[in-house]
Write a structure and sequence with these properties.
The chain has two domains: about 5-150, NAD(P)-binding Rossmann-like Domain (Rossmann fold), CATH 3.40.50.720; about 160-245, Orthogonal Bundle (ProC C-terminal domain-like fold). It is about 50% helix and about 15% strand. It has helices at about 10-20, 35-40, 70-75, 95, 130-140, 150-155, 160-175, 180-200, 205-215, 220-230, 230-250, and strands spanning about 5, 25-30, 45-50, 60, 85, 105-110, 120-125, 140-145. An eight-stranded mixed sheet has the order 3-2-1-4-5-6-7-8. Helix 6 (about 150-155) crosses helix 11 and helix 7 (about 160-175) packs across helix 8. The longest helix is centred in the C-terminal third of the chain and has 21 residues, at about 180-200. It is elongated and about 65 Å long.
Length: about 260
């Protein structure tokens, strides 16, 4: 892949762009907001407010708010040899494909694209070898039927915020018992990172891994008894469901478009 244009350089688009730049891609940043462009100017090969600049890239990433997707597509005339990766939450792939000549794939990434630790879901339709390579350079991804993109949006797209919330809770517990805030944040965040990597690399199930940490009459089992007796798991499921429902609401706005 020679070049990538990212249209929309806000939180998600900016994180995606920074990850691409770190992975060695030649990235053009496109946004009407010059402040957003300034925030990525240190890593982008070019910054511009002209959406037509995307016509010169092999792959175009559309990372704008759902309600302006149509107007952006009206302003840029992509050609069939290009691939358009849409990151817009809740916007159906077909809605985008009907408004461009480019090949279209819908992807839901997350902010960890910036560090190469992204979790992403992509629609099965539209995934090319170049798209696969790009997603692998930013982290890990799964392909799903589009009907499951709303729940994927909730799990991996919204999920980082839920994890941040839990990290903060563990940090606060450490601080309340005497740790310095910086110390507590480091060990809480690294614990989540290490646990996640263990889940990815270990053949045991999550339940088996919990058992492996819970020595009889030890410290962990005492804490787990509290969690098992609480509604913590239901609260997490409710958070995912709420995010999924909102993604579905966004999608429904495009049903008759």
């Amino acid at each position: 892949m020679e070049s990538v244009s990212v249209i929309g350089c806000g939180n998600m688009g900016g994180a995606f762009l920074r990850g691409l730049a770190k992975a060695g891609y030649d990235v053009t940043a496109i946004d009407l907001d010059t402040d957003a462009l300034d925030r990525v100017a240190d890593v982008a090969s070019e910054t511009t407010t002209d959406v037509e600049a995307a016509k010169g890239s092999d792959l175009v990433v559309l990372a704008v708010k759902p309600h302006i997707v149509e107007s952006v597509l009206d302003d840029v005339d992509l050609h069939p040899d290009q691939t358009l990766v849409t990151l817009a939450a809740g916007v159906p792939r077909e809605f985008v494909a009907d408004r461009t000549d480019a090949s279209v794939v819908r992807v839901m990434p997350n902010l960890a694209a910036e560090t190469g630790d992204m979790a992403a879901a992509a629609t099965e339709i539209g995934v090319t070898d170049d798209v696969r390579a790009l997603l692998e350079d930013l982290g890990e991804y799964v392909t799903v039927e589009e009907e499951y993109m709303d729940v994927a949006t909730a799990v991996n797209g919204s999920g980082p915020a839920f994890v941040f919330y839990l990290i903060e809770a563990m940090k606060d517990a450490g601080v309340e018992s005497g740790l310095e805030p910086e110390e507590a944040e480091v060990i809480a965040a690294q614990t989540f990172k290490g646990a996640a990597e263990t889940v990815r690399q270990d053949d045991r199930s999550v339940d088996e891994l919990i058992d492996a940490v819970c020595s009889p009459e030890g410290t962990t089992i005492e804490g787990m008894e509290v969690l098992w007796g609480s509604d913590a798991d239901e609260a997490v499921r409710d958070a995912v469901e709420a995010a999924r429902n909102r993604s579905q609401e966004l999608s429904e706005a495009f049903d008759d478009a």
